[in-house]
């Protein structure tokens, strides 16, 4: 397919959004909503896949339908293509001791594949690489301090940044991923106010996460609702399924701190969009079938690849795409997603798809109906 013909295949947003939006769309305060703290899910549902599902139209009738996630197969347009993020969460949180004997916690922020790609050998089966992480401890850690985490991992502090972030030199022996698997704990989001438990190793992971795609420090949470049984029902119904990889960074939880959201600097995340997924999306577009992203990470990967290349093509690299009302959405027609934090870039992303006032109205309805919010909470389907 030529670049010109592909541009014609990707239609403009369904809501016919005008180029000029009201100034309210660019104000951080416009993306707030009242959320009772008790609606923030602290644990997953007892059984995977039993969450509720709010179905809202991307345009037209705003009245939502309240269903269960297993009903998604009945709500998807005929022949739709689902595109999901198959990245796997690394147990990226380590606990250790400083040279003073004080306790220290280190949360690795850099994607594991990026660390391994720039590692240098320092000895027999010994390696080091630059990385970034969050350091939390008593006292005042200083550049040059080395912190050991077990026998095989050492973190050397280099330069302190904002909000507890540090540039570090990570030193290790053997298999770094295996060491994190054995010693680390799951990096639950900051709004889950409990320590990670053994059950989170399974539940804060999608059933289709690939071991060779380990490296995210947050889960692509829309995918947490899918079960093997639902996947089989989707296949039987003729719903397509393709995958990509976006290594979710901790920046997904970074708040927007500027009132004019256009001044916000978006974090970058590593993407691998394979050729077979691109071809499946292009074929669906040619045939008029709907492309549905499973989660905002899949949406960012597809739209980021389009933005970087001016068309949809296989892509390996970093995307820092920031979608909000007024920014064009070129690839996806609909979205399966969880409910997101007030004033977050993720609320702004879903607003880019269906409009700020419409999405906030849907969120107010979700609060009234006592949906569970955020990573372990319920789901929404923005239906084209």
Structure characterization notes:
Helix 9 crosses helix 10 (356-368). The chain is globular. Strand 5 and strand 6 form a beta hairpin. With 384 residues, the chain is α/β, with parallel strands linked by helices. Helices cover 23% and strands 26% of the residues. The strands form three sheets. The protein has a nine-stranded mixed sheet with strand order 2-1-18-17-15-3-13-14-16, covered by helices on one side. Strands 5, 6, 7, 8, 9, 10 and 11 form a seven-stranded antiparallel sheet that branches. A two-stranded parallel sheet has the order 4-12. It folds into two domains: 3-88 and 201-383, QueA-like, CATH 3.40.1780.10; 92-184, Beta Barrel (Thrombin, subunit H), CATH 2.40.10.240.
Considering the chains and any ligands shown, give keywords for the structure.
disordered N terminus, 384 residues, Thrombin, subunit H, nine-stranded mixed β-sheet, QueA-like, 2 domains, seven-stranded antiparallel β-sheet, alpha/beta, 10 helices, 18 strands
Number of helices: 10
Largest sheet: 9 strands, mixed
Strand order of the largest sheet: 2-1-18-17-15-3-13-14-16
Query: Any idea what the shape is?
Result: globular
Low-pLDDT residue spans: 1-5, 11-21
CATH class descriptor name of the largest domain: Alpha Beta
The fourth-level CATH homologous superfamily of the largest domain is QueA-like
Order of helices and strands: HEEHEEEEHEEEEEHHEHEEHEHEEHHE
Beta-strand residue fraction? 25-35%
Q: Mean of residue pLDDT?
A: 92
What topology emerges from the helices and strands here?
Blueprint: H1 3-9, E1 52-57, E2 65-68, H2 72-75, E3 81-85, E4 88-89, E5 93-97, E6 103-108, H3 112-117, E7 120-123, E8 126-137, E9 146-149, E10 153-160, E11 165-173, H4 176-183, H5 200-203, E12 214-216, H6 228-236, E13 240-246, E14 269-273, H7 275-286, E15 291-294, H8 296-309, E16 315-319, E17 334-338, H9 345-354, H10 356-368, E18 379-383
Parallel strand pairs: 1-18, 3-13, 3-15, 4-12, 15-17
Antiparallel strand pairs: 1-2, 5-6, 6-8, 7-8, 8-11, 9-10, 10-11, 13-14, 14-16, 17-18
Helix pairs in contact: 9-10
